[in-house]
Every structure is written in C-alpha cells, then in structure tokens.
C-alpha cells in the first residue's frame, strides 16, 4: 500500500484548516480523529463518509455542495494514523469525481479541497488537473498547488520536481489569464522558509517566459497580461536567472505592451483611447497593459541600471503617449547595446 506523505506540523498532522466538523457533536469521525490505531471497520467508516461528502460536493444543489466542501476541509487536530487514511481517501475520491463532475463550480470546489490537505500526494493529483479542459479547474488546481507548497517542500522524493515540471508544461500552453497567473504563483517558492531548488524554479520560469515571449511577438496573445505576475516572480529570482535571456523576454513583453497601448503601425485602436465606460474586456486589457509596462520597465531598470534611464511609466502616468514612444525608443537603444537585438517599433504618429 502506498504511504501518503503527510506534513507534520507541531507534532500533529493538521490535515485541514478550520474546525467546523470538529465542533459538531454529531460528527461520526470525531472519535476516530483521536485514535492512534484504526481498525479495518473504522477505516471503512472514514472511506464511506469521504465518498458521500465528495458525491455531495459535486451535487447540482449549491448549498449542499458548499456544505460538503466545508465538511471535507473541516478536519483538524487529527492523529497521524487518521490523517493518512483520511487524506488517501479524499485524494482517491476527488480523483474519481473530477473526471465526472459536470459543473465547473463543483470541480473547482474539489480542487480547493485538495489545497487544504497537508499532503504532498494531493499535489500530484492537482498537477494532473492542470491539464483539465476547463480553465476554472486548471486555475483551481494551480491555486491548490500554491497552498500545498509547504508540504511539497518538506517531504523527500520527487514531489517538488514533478510539481514544478507539471506547472512549467501547463503554463507554456495556457490560454486563460486567470489560470496562468495562478500557475506563476504556484511556481514561486520564494516565500517558503525551506525554499527548494531556487535555480530549478528559475530555469522553469524562464522556459515559460521564453515560450510566452514568442507569443507576444504575434498579433494576438492568449492570456495577455498574465506576465504581470510572472515578471514580479522573476524579480524575486533575479539572481538565479540568466541576465540576457531575462532581458530579452522582458523587452519583448514591453515592446508588445507599448505598441498596443500607445499605438504603432498595424494597431487599429491603441488602448490608451479606452475609457472606463467602454466594454469590460477592453478596460481589463487596457489595465493589464498598463501594469505590464510598469512592471517590465521596473524589472529592466533593476537588471540594467542604465544611466539616465528612460521613463515610459512616467510618461504613461502623464497621459503623454508621444513621450511614451520617445522613451520606448530610448530603451530600444539601451537594449541594442546590451543584448545586441533590435527591439525598435514603427510607432507611427503621436
């Protein structure tokens, strides 16, 4: 029987956050949570309870689904024996339910349950869910992996490598901005006390950014704007990243953002012209490009520290798109000298 890896915190396996079930006197698992040895019958009781709750969690009745999710996340203060049995049953039941769940909300709820488990094995199931054909499930799976970083970092074996590789591969082809942002956050272990393999994270992140930079060279970019998160993560891993490769992807993203925001040849409607009363999609895209410009320029300044640094961001805050273009061309000159590549644009009239 495969042993489920449980992160032991302060001597107790804290399987879930919260204590909604622990406080319920009618809870059939209350006594079992305190037992150091479980009989086969008691293990069957746990399995049956979990199976029913997972079925309820994919119910078409929203209140029942939410209540089941709370119950599944509500186990705390359990013994290691209970934690192992409980986690194994939740993982297997969720694995089956994810394949047949008809509602995105139900599948998303199940992915959130995985994130509450202090079990590295839950991470492998979440990695599998990164390939789901529903964007909401992929986003939830990535969010679960973010919450599971502590257990993943603590256990031995190749959990971390499998998780990182799964995120890298999924992020390269992700088309949903929300899901891709969640994947970038899940790759960022910089906040974990025992941070695993920072160079490995940096390599994976750079691979994704280079794949994404190739998309930013095209007219339309799926998940446009998600690199606001990625470039912030890159800032935290800057010492582990190849300078010229990082400069190249950052400059490519900045080039796209300036062209589409301030205007360039081939751009029919620069996003600077979008007003808050326009369609939510256009407003969201405008805001995303503004953030891309701010973050990308900040990162280039951090890496290159040029004298008399160009100031696209300041010109943008002044709503001076003519000066934005002038400042961008100054950046293109700086970048040409650093990486010997031409990032200039035909920026057209101001």
Notable characteristics:
single chain, about 350 residues, mainly alpha, 15 helices, disordered N terminus
Structural class: mainly alpha
Rg measurement, Å: 24 Å
Termini distance?
A: 68 Å
Strand content: under 5%
**Count of alpha/pi helices:** 15
- Helix-strand topology string: HHHHHHHHHHHHHHH
- Overall geometry comes to elongated
Give unreliable regions as ranges.
Answer: 1-24
SSE order and pairing:
Layout lengths: L39 H18 L4 H12 L6 H21 L3 H13 L3 H10 L5 H13 L1 H6 L4 H15 L3 H11 L10 H19 L10 H10 L6 H20 L17 H25 L7 H6 L3 H19 L11
Helix pairs in contact: 1-2, 1-3, 2-4, 3-4, 3-5, 4-6, 5-6, 5-8, 6-9, 8-9, 8-10, 10-12, 11-13, 12-13, 12-15
Concise account of the structure shown:
62% of the residues lie in helices and 0% in strands.
Any overview of this molecule?
The protein is mostly helical and about 350 residues long. It has a domain at about 240-350. About 60% of the residues lie in helices and about 0% in strands. It is built from 15 helices and no strands. The model is unreliable at about 1-25 (pLDDT under 50).
